[in-house]
Design goal:
Layout lengths: L1 H15 L11 E7 L15 E6 L3 E6 L4 E5 L15 E6 L3 E6 L4 E5 L15 E6 L3 E6 L4 E5 L15 E6 L3 E6 L4 E5 L15 E6 L3 E6 L4 E5 L15 E6 L3 E6 L4 E5 L15 E6 L3 E7 L14 H12 L15 H13 L2
Antiparallel strand pairs: 1-21, 2-3, 3-4, 5-6, 6-7, 8-9, 9-10, 11-12, 12-13, 14-15, 15-16, 17-18, 18-19, 20-21
Helix pairs in contact: 1-3, 2-3
């Protein structure tokens, strides 16, 4: 059975091209660890039904399968006051003191600190595919694959480099921004005092991006992570073996990587325990890093059992591919709100592993 799984995985992988893999969109509970000075690790009840997490500096957010968002932690700017009706969300992002939610209709909701315009979504507020939040700025990818950026722009973090097209993913740091192009290259702009915008060569073969305040990370199609920028606390020193990663996240001075086997690797600043992954370090499907804390969703069931019959077999692959072809949200394996080729590789990695 293992040989069959691997052959199916290899064949479909060659047809579709290598891509980032994160975790099947099956519901789970949230694990939170690290600094808890504002209750950012105090999980809301019920701790179930989550499909994605995001983190600001001192607050946390979770997206549930029913399209609602839970937010907890520091709330002095209203960054945890999710606008009503709290329904219809498909992605979430956390900034310094503000939050973003992407609706299924492609509109963006923004709440929290309005001081620099980070919550003033530019018109037309429609047709967005992905979102990201920096410290005091926000970013969104439109249906034409261009990026809109708004909020604080003192370091040019909202000045998207030309050509503003072909973008697939986006991330925001303190005063810099990152974006992944469809050709696998990374664009970086804004504050560069720590080299956080100096993408390492070769600038190709990337499938995902993440940003801390002063450092940047990108996942390559071979499962390795590139990290650059400030390395004061070793946040750019990816632990060996630098392979088998399917997702990456950047925190204040620490970094996280999710492995294909569902375990999490954490490195960098650890004074508050943000790198102490709670046991058992397994069955995680998505990750996020805050200022000094970390978040992850741990699945409640087997993510590779797509049809839910209790067996991981070829019928699960066919069921997934049918849903993917129909662009059904159940095929959004990486939970980023977009059904694309990366979701196929995400699911097949889990399936090849048996769960």
């Amino acid at each position: 059975m293992t040989r069959l799984r691997m052959s199916v995985f290899a064949a479909l992988g060659l047809c579709l091209g290598m891509a980032a893999v994160v975790g099947a969109q099956t519901t789970g509970s949230v694990e939170a660890w690290g600094a808890n000075s504002y209750g950012q690790c105090v999980l809301p009840a019920p701790n179930s039904g989550f499909v994605a997490v995001a983190a600001g500096v001192w607050h946390s957010l979770g997206l549930r399968a029913d399209g609602s968002i839970a937010a907890w932690g520091r709330n002095d700017s209203g960054q945890c006051d999710v606008p009503r009706p709290n329904t219809g969300f498909k992605a979430v992002a956390g900034g310094g003191n503000h939050s973003l939610g992407l609706e299924t209709d492609g509109t963006i909701e923004a709440w929290g600190d309005h001081g620099y315009g980070a919550c003033d979504v530019p018109e037309p507020n429609i047709g967005f595919l992905a979102i990201a939040a920096g410290s005091s700025h926000s970013l969104g990818i439109r249906a034409d694959r261009s990026i809109s950026a708004w909020g604080y722009n003192g370091f040019g973090q909202c000045d998207v480099p030309a050509p503003n097209s072909g973008f697939m993913a986006v991330a925001g740091g303190l005063y810099h921004s990152l974006a992944l192009r469809s050709d696998g290259s990374v664009a970086a702009w804004g504050w560069n005092d720590h080299g956080q915008c100096n993408v390492p060569a070769p600038n190709s073969g990337f499938v995902a991006v993440a940003a801390g305040p002063y450092h940047s990370l990108a996942l390559r199609s071979d499962g390795s992570i590139a990290a650059w920028g400030s390395n004061t606390y070793g946040q750019c020193n990816v632990p060996a073996p630098n392979s088998g990663f399917v997702a990456v996240a950047g925190g204040g001075f620490h970094s996280l990587g999710l492995k294909a086997d569902g375990s999490i690797v954490a490195w960098g600043y650890n004074t508050d325990g943000e790198c102490d992954v709670p046991a058992p370090n397994a069955r995680f499907v998505t990750i996020a890093a805050g200022g000094y804390n970390s978040l992850a969703v741990r699945v409640e069931g087997c993510p590779a059992d797509f049809n839910g019959d209790g067996a991981v077999d070829t019928r699960d692959v066919l069921g997934f591919l049918n849903a993917w072809t129909a662009q059904d949200s159940s095929a959004d394996c990486d939970g980023n709100g977009v059904v694309d080729t990366r979701d196929v590789l995400c699911f097949l990695n889990l399936w090849a592993a048996g769960c």
